[in-house]
């Protein structure tokens, strides 16, 4: 019986597993094969797990639910902007999705409910971020909006106000 769908004299399947013509077991060879350096493997694993954690915590707000939360966190009337302005901004930037991420051509990302950009406001894996909000971009992707609102208030307090978006 052959290992592959076609006839091959190189690999055959026997009772002891798949063996090559030289008698070396494929399983023992595969177990010694490494995917890459341990550091790269750990980075990939951490990235995968953080992505899974973030996606499992994602929340898509309803319009009224978001308005109540933004009001509770103090955005109503902040710098002259009403709840309707904030809800409209969240709808058109992320569709009320806290886990929304948009990738830009320059390698930066727009993150979370208000699509806050990593180039200036938060830190991701890129070392050249200004990180003016002093937080990781992943902090903007969770349903708890406290960090997001702190950053939004900092952005809107700048000279462009809501015009930043």
TrEMBL record:
It comes from the Eukaryota. One of its GO terms (cellular component) is sperm flagellum. Pfam families: Lys. InterPro entries: Glyco_hydro_22, Glyco_hydro_22_CS, Glyco_hydro_22_lys, Lysozyme-like_dom_sf. GO terms for biological process: fusion of sperm to egg plasma membrane involved in single fertilization. Its main location: membrane. It is a single-pass type II membrane protein. Sperm surface membrane protein that may be involved in sperm-egg plasma membrane adhesion and fusion during fertilization. It could be a potential receptor for the egg oligosaccharide residue N-acetylglucosamine, which is present in the extracellular matrix over the egg plasma membrane. The processed form has no detectable bacteriolytic activity in vitro. Interacts with ASTL. This is Sperm acrosome membrane-associated protein 3. It comes from Sciurus carolinensis (Eastern gray squirrel).
